[in-house]
Amino acid sequence: MQLLLWFFVFAGIANFSGGLVSVISWFFVRKKYGKARQEKNKKASIIIPFKGKNVDNIEYFLKQDYNDYEVIVVVDSMEEANEIKSKFGVKVEITEKLPKCSGKISAMLTGIKKSNGNIYIFADADIKPHEKWLSYLVGGIEKNSIATSYRWYFENKLLSVWNASVASILFYNAFNFAWGGSMAIAKKDFENLGIAKIWRESLVDDLTLTMKAKKSGYKINFVPQAISEAEEEENMIKWMNKEMAWIRYYFPSLWGLALFITLAMRAGVVAGFVIFFFHPVIGFMLFSPIIFDIFRGWQEYATFTQLMEYDRHRFFPWYVHAFLRPLIPFILAYNLISSAFIREIEWGGKKYKIARNKIDGSA
Fold it and tell me: How far apart are alpha carbons 275 and 282 in whole angstroms?
């Protein structure tokens, strides 16, 4: 019994310390990311793989406050191409299907072949970028670096807070990654890293790019000012599980660490509420992450509303974010566990059987 009590003491110290470090580190985050550079003159090519999305979103890409850029929409059919050309007058290309990669990557590589820019910007068709999005994203490119932003959901409260918790990881260089829905890389870096060759045999674009870039000593520069509104997912939980599955198959060590820490801390929280009635100090330390999560939720809210290019009235009140935030680690734990059993992912109307470094697409 005494040994078990000491175990809870050390677990409580770990939980309390983890929550405290998380909160304290955020003050440095806000200071580091307070200012962002804008670039409006480098020749840029925005490449948008398009399939079954809202065609009206293309309008957002055409209204960028930028001096020299082109928009290339890549579709699967001539019917889609004609619709987009007639409505927007942009460059539209038909995807050149490649046998060993996903349809999205085939579209991205097709767009690259038809592009004229010195900067490649890859964007999802379901984001609605604000007018400064492109200038901030290109401005985030430094020597040996890739710039990325993220999405934001304004309608669904729980999805918005979950998404913000994932976006907050991008502030930390050791754990961040390029997000394929909004990322920019110089053409010369894309070629020097040999990304096209890697993509030709890959299912996922952003995580493979991240792996190669970090192994080659490149940095991933997160640009929160370029975060864009995105259309919401129809099946929220299924989509969350899929997001974790990508990490499991491409970053298994990171996935395992996240699973261990998340489960350990949440188990400690549950135990803390019980132990509190017998040993208040130990119990409090065990469930203290709940309290820190509330404060962390307020910190995330204050930071994103300050840095993002959207009016504050678009966001939920701060207390919604703060008091939903403690639920997110429990949801993430479920997502991580569920992703361990995913062997097939549906993406863009096609199903893929996935395994480490291997994909098998079936209609």
Answer: 7
